[in-house]
Write a structure and sequence with these properties.
single chain, 135 residues, mainly alpha, 6 helices
Length: 135
């Protein structure tokens, strides 16, 4: 895989994480400010340190998690299709998900789900689907 291809997949990695975390937050059909704040804290505290992939503008690709999340929110995308997009990416590029990254994915998903009024049934279902996918 050449450098450009590797960088493209790295960008897609973060874009698909944005879809996943949006799917978790939107599982109950609404996104709360606390969920968005938690996402931003998680990106800055953990995801910026995962690797050195930069997007084509030289900014840390991990910020694409937030960019995609915000875009999906603006256009009112549904949780299920966003989760399915992430699942497809994961199945095609599972080698990108080390045990450490999988743990971080689960930790971030749980943090978002718990950010507002604890985890509800729809959020618990999507977290269970994610756990099964990542096994």
């Amino acid at each position: 895989m050449n450098m450009m291809e590797s960088q493209r997949i790295g960008n897609e990695f973060y874009q698909n994480l944005g879809k996943l975390f949006y799917a978790v937050a939107m599982a109950d059909q609404s996104i709360h400010a606390k969920e968005m704040d938690t996402l931003r804290e998680e990106v800055r505290s953990y995801w910026l340190q995962v690797d050195a992939v930069e997007d084509e503008f030289g900014t840390d690709a991990a910020f694409q998690i937030e960019t995609v999340f915000d875009w999906l929110l603006e256009y009112g995308k549904d949780s299920g299709s966003c989760f399915d997009d992430f699942a497809t990416f994961y199945q095609e590029h599972h080698e990108k998900f080390s045990p450490k990254v999988k743990r971080l994915v689960m930790d971030t998903a749980h943090a978002i789900a718990a950010a507002f009024a604890r985890k509800n049934k729809s959020e618990l279902i999507i977290l269970a689907k994610l756990k099964l996918l990542l096994q």
